Amino acid sequence: MTAANRPSAKVTLPTPPTARLVLLVDDSAAQRRLLARLLTRGGYQVAEAATGDEALAICARLAPDLVLSDWNMPGMTGLEFCAAFRAMSRPNYGYFILLTSNPDARAITEGLQAGADDFLHKPVAPQELLARIAAGERILRVEEELRASNTQLRAALAQLSETQAAIERDLREARKLQQGLVRERSGRFGQFELSLLLRPAGHIGGDLVGFFPICPERVGLYALDVSGHGVTAALLTAQLSVHLSGSSDQNIALRGAQAGSDSVGPAALAHFFNNMMLEEMNTDTYFTMIYAELNHVSGRLRMVQAGHPHPALQRADGQVQHLGQGGMPVGVFEHPLFDEIDITLDPGDRLLIASDGITEAATPNGRQLGNDGLEAVMRTNAFLQGHSFLESMAWSVSEYCRGERQDDMSAILIEHRGTGKVIRLDD
């Protein structure tokens, strides 16, 4: 035994956290015994094979963690055995060290291409063997940690997928419930036709439109747009819908009429909601609103604008006028200024109250539709009425933003269906 091969009493192997199995493959029994003795003292389990075929059988049965294989063996060479080892199906990674007496760079390249992780030059020095084994231990520990992390990640992703599926189901049901808040999509009051559009950008949204009768001559209409999207906005929308429902004991606008007096006026209703948002709700959410009272006998329309986009009035001759000064949103300021609008709708006129999901719809390069674009849509679709007009408008908006709509769309269309002038399409 040479000095290089003689084990030193001072050499100690690091004890692995678990007894790893090392497979020694060498046609020399003496060489296997030498290496086996050293590895066993280090706490490793050792298996031995004299040929490549015998080693493959052991690998198939025991799946060793580390393999030390001689390059030059009768029959299957160490290089061929390494390639066959890499082709096997394994539960974990196997670290492969080739023992070679040829330090030639070309041989090293061939070994790496066959799948070897490291090399040891013969005769094997115990110190170098320990260093190579330690390096292999580090690689195996990293691989095990990654595998464990991947297992945890797959489990987390599976759980997340199940949770997401449950959320999707809940949101679909929530969408049905939210759509149910708009109990009627159209109504006829005298010579006036009311049509509603509500189209969330996602499963649920923060827009709300509706109407309710106040008395035999008047009807209340509302359009709300809660800031943000998703569940928070939808919950506030649901709460607001209770205060604007047709039930006289819940509807804020009808409480005055229930008490024998007039209904709560548009501006007073906006101030009520503003106080409710500031005093009763612990949230940073706010909303814009238009609330209107329509006298469908006289055609008079009184409304309040609280930060909502300007209503678009299209007269019977086709001319379009954007109404209001804007006003402040509801739930932001203690003493807000709301804009009050008072107009009369004549036969052939119609008023469109649209959310900013329509006027702020943008092309991929960021150009918004705006009031001018909305006016163009109204002129183009002037020959349509009711839901046909609203659906055509919604299609035009979607086409304008190439289907990448980021906000909810909602609208109220008020049409005086009495005898009036024919709308000219060439204006």
Automatic annotation (TrEMBL):
Modified residues (4-aspartylphosphate): 70
One biological process term in Gene Ontology: phosphorelay signal transduction system
Any coiled-coil regions, as ranges: 139-177
Transmembrane segments: none
Keyword Glycoprotein part of the UniProt annotation: no
Keyword field: Coiled coil, Hydrolase, Phosphoprotein
Gene3D superfamilies named in the record: 3.40.50.2300, PPM-type phosphatase domain
Domain Response regulatory: from-to ranges: 21-137
A GO term for molecular function: phosphatase activity
Domain of life of the organism encoding this protein: Bacteria
PROSITE patterns for the chain: RESPONSE_REGULATORY (PS50110)
Protein name: Fused response regulator/phosphatase
Lineage of producing organism: Bacteria, Pseudomonadati, Pseudomonadota, Alphaproteobacteria, Rhodobacterales
